[in-house]
Amino acid sequence: MKKPIRNIAVVAGAASAAFALTLSPATAAPSTVWTVSPNPANITAVNSGNIVLSVNGLNITCTRSTGLAMLRSATGNPAVVGSVDALAFGATGAPCTSALGPMTMTPVTPWAVLAQDHDATTGVTKGHLDRVDIKMNAGPIVFRVKGKVAYTYTNTTGRLTVTSAPGQLLVTESANGGVALPVGSSLIGTGTYLVKAAGTTTGPAIIGTHP
Asked: Where does residue 29 rank: exposed (0-12), middle (13-18), buried (19+ CB within 10 A)?
């Protein structure tokens, strides 16, 4: 009698393991419902630390950067959860700098804010800014970059970190840059912003779920 009981236990254990394996992919399903609070949220963003960029070996540093954006609840994956409506790099008396001299950076907005992944444990949302478009010039050298930029946003701190990896943001136009700034070059870099919802001292919350 003991042997059949052991066999039943083994079969039951295998069935439980198979059931757990069947369920595990569901727990890792991507978020499809995005809840922004407040909704909609008009936000301001101010850089925390320098914005550091590099294109084909040319380093660019901005000590000041500010932005205005709007976030809203949405569905889908990726989902458009808002837009960057205005963005400034540099300020009066504190221009962005480079080896070519002061660098003027003029964003062409709006950009789209897309959300793709949310970690409920850490409150971190990952996604990318799409339709990024920036005109740049230093003296007679003029070029333009377009593409997308990855970001992470943390609800508890209101910190938004943007990172452009190689191949995401490319030079699409270039004049007087010669071989130093050819079309097709990648602009890479990173920066962190402190985000606040209008009328508050804290950033909005972005929560992704998969009902």
From this structure: exposed
Cα separation, 182 vs 143, in Å, equals 9
Does 73 lie in the same domain as 15? no
Same domain, 72 and 167: yes
Q: Which residues contact residue 109 at a Cβ distance below 8 angstroms, ignoring those fewer than 6 apart?
A: 83, 84, 85, 86, 87, 133
* End-to-end Cα separation, the chain, in angstroms: 46
Whole-number pLDDT of residue 29: 79
pTM of the predicted structure, to 2 decimals: 0.85
Residue numbers of the domain that contains 5: 1-29
One domain, residues 153 and 54: yes
Structure tokens given for 177: 């840059």
Which DSSP string do the residues of 144-198 spell out, in sequence order? Answer: EEEEEEEEEEETTTTEEEEEEPTTTEEEEEEES-GGGS-TTPBEEEEEEEEEEET
DSSP assignment, residue 203?
Answer: P
User: Total structural domains in the chain?
Assistant: 2
Write the pLDDT tens digit of every residue in 13-61: 444 444 333 443 434 579 999 999 999 999 999 999 999 999 999 999 9
Distance CA 148, CA 77 (A): 16
Which residue is it, tokens 């790099």?
Answer: 89
* Helix or strand run (H / E) with residue 12: helix 2-27
The span from the CA of 204 to the CA of 37, in Å, is: 6
